[in-house]
Amino acid sequence: MERPSAPRSQNGSSQAAGTSCAGGTDLACEGVRGRSRVPSSSAIADRIKVAVVDPHPLYRQGLVNAVAGSRLVVVAEGGTADEAPRTVLKGKPDVLLLDIAVPGDGMGIARQVLRLRPGLKVVVLTASEDEEDVADALRMGVHGYILKEVSGPELVSAVEAICRGEPYVTPALASRLLMRGKGRPLAPHRIEDVGLTAHDRRILGYVGRGLTNQEIARSLGMNVRTVKHYLTRVFRKMGVRNRVEATVEAQRMRLELDGPAAL
């Protein structure tokens, strides 16, 4: 018996039953719209090359479409943890977008890829909002943790920031990490031990909210160089190397922050 064809829109294109993406910005909807997934050599020049390891082909297609026209270009794809090493060697990507929910050991493969390609920026792009997943990934050394509800432009901006050396965590998750320790026993380090001033905590609060150095500078009425100076001082006091480690350490210390991160 012949299978019924998928419903067709007025322009004759097929669409999966039950899928409504008219006017939507979700990355999966971009996959329904569909475009060519094979970038030309000229399209790759002077762009940020991205590899994607995600178990859902529709989402991968949507991601390709969502970043089209930006500085990002997808050069390799995989669907399982076992495919990840081959994927990061193919096309020599600058960034790996990895869903830790891929079949196999997603966290383990992130650790393996970091060893395999030390210069590669590894970014978790997942639906998991589990705080332990976030903390484990950051301790492992990934350069970003982004939720899949992100829009295409937001993803592009986050990846560009990561490539500039600014680790990125979805702001809502970063704030939650900073507040997570409330009601738990105090960690061995006290706030006074690291010597953070009220101004330091305010700067760290903006970091926890996910603001860039430029945005912090505008909010505090100072130049970007001064913000970088303050952040370097805060990181040194906390014994961390970057924004991501500062976020994890702040929640471990149950640090009460001033400013927007405490909202």
Q: Overview of this structure, please?
A:
- The chain has a 6-stranded parallel sheet, with helices on both faces.
- Helix 7 (152-163) links the parallel strand 5 and strand 6.
- It is built from 13 helices and 6 strands.
- Helix content is 45%, strand content 11%.
- The model is unreliable at 1-25, 31-36, 181-192 and 259-263 (pLDDT under 50).
- It has helices at residues 27-33, 41-44, 57-66, 84-89, 106-116, 131-140, 152-163, 171-179, 191-194, 198-209, 213-220, 224-238, 243-252, and strands at 48-53, 72-78, 95-98, 121-126, 144-147, 168-169.
- By secondary structure, it is α/β, with parallel strands linked by helices.
- Helix 1 packs across helix 3 (57-66).
- It has 2 domains: 27-169, Rossmann fold; 177-262, Winged helix-like DNA-binding domain superfamily/Winged helix DNA-binding domain (Arc Repressor Mutant, subunit A), CATH 1.10.10.10.
- It starts with 26 loop residues before the first helix and ends in an 11-residue tail after the last helix.
Descriptive keywords:
263 residues, alpha/beta, Rossmann fold, Arc Repressor Mutant, subunit A, 2 domains, 6-stranded parallel β-sheet, 13 helices, 11% strand, disordered N terminus
